[in-house]
Design goal:
136 residues; mainly beta; 3-stranded antiparallel β-sheet; 2 helices; 7 strands; extended
C-alpha cells in the first residue's frame, strides 16, 4: 500500500523500497535512481595510459571522459589543465604546482565533455601518468 507524505509518516518511520516506488512512481523510484547512480561508476576500461604534456586532445567518444593524472614533480614544477570547445583550449580547469621545497607525487582528475578539447601544460619537466576512461 502506498503512502502520502506528511499524512501517514512521521519522523523515524521506516519506508521500504516498495513504499517509495509506489509513492514516487517510476521516474523517482529507488530502482530508477539506482540505475542512474550506477552509470556514474560504469566506465569503459582505460582507453589510454599515455598522455603527452603540452599536446591537445579531443574527446571524440560522444561520452563524458574521465582523465586521472598522476604526476611526480620537483620543487617549482607544475601542470595546468585547459579544456573547452575550441581546438586550442584556453579555459583553465585547474592546476598544480609543487611549492613544498621537496620532490612529491600528486594526483589530479578532471572531466571532459563530448566534443571538447583538453590539454595538460607543464612548467619544468614533471613526470606524468594517465588513466583515461569514457563513461557509458
Amino acid at each position: 500500500m502506498g503512502f502520502v507524505a506528511g499524512t501517514d509518516l512521521s519522523t523515524g518511520d521506516i519506508v521500504t523500497a516498495t513504499d517509495w516506488n509506489n509513492y514516487n512512481g517510476a521516474s523517482n523510484s529507488i530502482d530508477y535512481l539506482h540505475t542512474e547512480l550506477t552509470k556514474l561508476y560504469d566506465l569503459d576500461s582505460s582507453l589510454n595510459t599515455s598522455l603527452s604534456l603540452d599536446t591537445t586532445y579531443q574527446n571524440t567518444s560522444g561520452k563524458i571522459r574521465v582523465v586521472q593524472l598522476g604526476t611526480y614533480m620537483n620543487n617549482t614544477e607544475g601542470i595546468a589543465v585547459v579544456s573547452d570547445s575550441g581546438s586550442s583550449p584556453t579555459t583553465a580547469i585547474g592546476s598544480l604546482t609543487n611549492r613544498t621545497g621537496v620532490n612529491m607525487s600528486f594526483s589530479f582528475s578532471f572531466l571532459v565533455p563530448p566534443g571538447y578539447y583538453y590539454r595538460v601544460n607543464k612548467t619544468g619537466t614533471p613526470a606524468l601518468t594517465a588513466d583515461i576512461y569514457d563513461m557509458h
